[in-house]
Write a structure and sequence with these properties.
Number of strands: 0
Largest sheet: none
Structural class: mainly alpha
Strand content: under 5%
Distance between the termini: 49 Å
Number of helices: 17
Shape: globular
Order of helices and strands: HHHHHHHHHHHHHHHHH
Radius of gyration: 22 Å
Length: 300
Amino acid sequence: MRDDSDGNSTVKADFERAAALMRTGDVPAVETACRDALERFPGDGNLLCLLGAALIRQRRPGEAEEPLREATERFPEFGKAHEELGNALLAQNRLADAAACLERSVELDPGNDHARFKLEKIHAALREPASVHEHGVFDLEVLERNPSDPHALRLMAQEAQRQGDSGEAIVLLKKAVAADAEFVIGWLDLGELHADRGDYNDALEAARRAADLEPRAPLPQLRVAEYLSQLGRHDEAIAAYRAGLSANSGNRDCLIGLGHMLRTVGRHDEAVRAYRETIERHPSDAEAYWSLANMKSVRF
């Protein structure tokens, strides 16, 4: 959503990197990536919209309003921006304002069933204030209309996990990734559930599916490395941490994990370099300082 032919390819690359992070569920990294890109390309509609979506997912809908309103003002025909602004307002229980945004979104994209369904529920709530739903319920009710909706299945899995039924959560997530084999966050969630149960081979298989789908995102490689580590496959884990750093050279968890793994296999000089790079990029990281302090050959 930016008319900038000279920089368009770079804007597109920045947006695609941030969108890949969103698909893996690394929402704080999405926010950082969008803010960094907007420093270079202020006013880009796609980046503003994605930033707003990331803030909503972090339960900061009030902050999301500013970038989303800017996106709708700059690009009044950008239906997705109107929808996300509606989501931000809905998360704050501002139903009438949310309805106006979702109506505009549906007007611009009549095929947007999610926006249309939310709009129907808001109108019902406005007619009967006592029936106002929390934001998450809308996705649950999508499942009633489409039992194969992967996002709704994931939400159901999260609820099952909160209730302590990890077996049911795994069943639901398997249905989600069966419905959409490219549902990256579903594969990652499935891997974490398997890992919580100590099933690291199954966790590794799920994480590798996510990594294959999003090779430019560090989080799937980080999960692969962690599960390989649990299986005692240290050299493979080191390679996976390095793959994560190839996707994002400053990723803190990949850097510190690499340091720990190198130390485990006795490659102390390389471990020290990894810890020092962690500190250089993340000066307040106490774990990296502590790890260096425990390398008895190291002096500050």
